[in-house]
Amino acid sequence: MKILISAEQIQDRIVDLGRRIAQDYHERAVTIVGVLTGSLIFLADLVRQLNLPLRIGLIQASSYRGAATEPGELHLAPELLPDVRGRHVLLIDDILDTGQTLSHLVAHLRSLEIASLRVGVLLRKIGRQNIPFQPDYVGFDIPNAFVVGYGLDYNDEYRHLPYIAELSNQ
Ligand code: IMP
Ligand code: MG
To answer: Which of the residues 31, 123, 132, 136 could staple to 95 if both were Cys, CB 3.0 to 4.6 A apart?
Structure first.
């Protein structure tokens, strides 16, 4: 598989993002909400760069079923989410593709009377958003290819790779 973003590039970028996020929140307590399962590795590395009072929550959203690389129907499982009322929430996902997942999650979180909401993604695919969506923090813009690694999967494989690679031979 062709490596698009190396492990070192990812780690360097996360240090930058961590600095920016810590400056923006300015010692305010933040609840980071990670979208399972893809954000797991990004979330774990990012929070260790955040010098802020911090809580972690998780929510599950899935739109890829098994071996499909085109999004299917979105399924949200909010049971894992702690009580976020009144909190400053930073929603973290692995990748912004069509925008379906994040726009649904944003609507869901806003309905929970939170104090504020920002969104961060590791990757944003260029030219794929059919629901306009502007994240507050973006790690890397990438071309329209199906990518795996660093949390991102194909049929639940490859999440453990420390880099982002373009999936070949699907
Ligand atoms: P969206 O709802 O179309 O924006 O898709 C977002 C979700 O689809 C992400 O949270 C990923 O789980 C998954 N996804 C989108 N593109 C890729 C990819 O290239 N590789 C792996 N997963 C992807
Ligand atoms: Mg995902």
So the answer is: 123
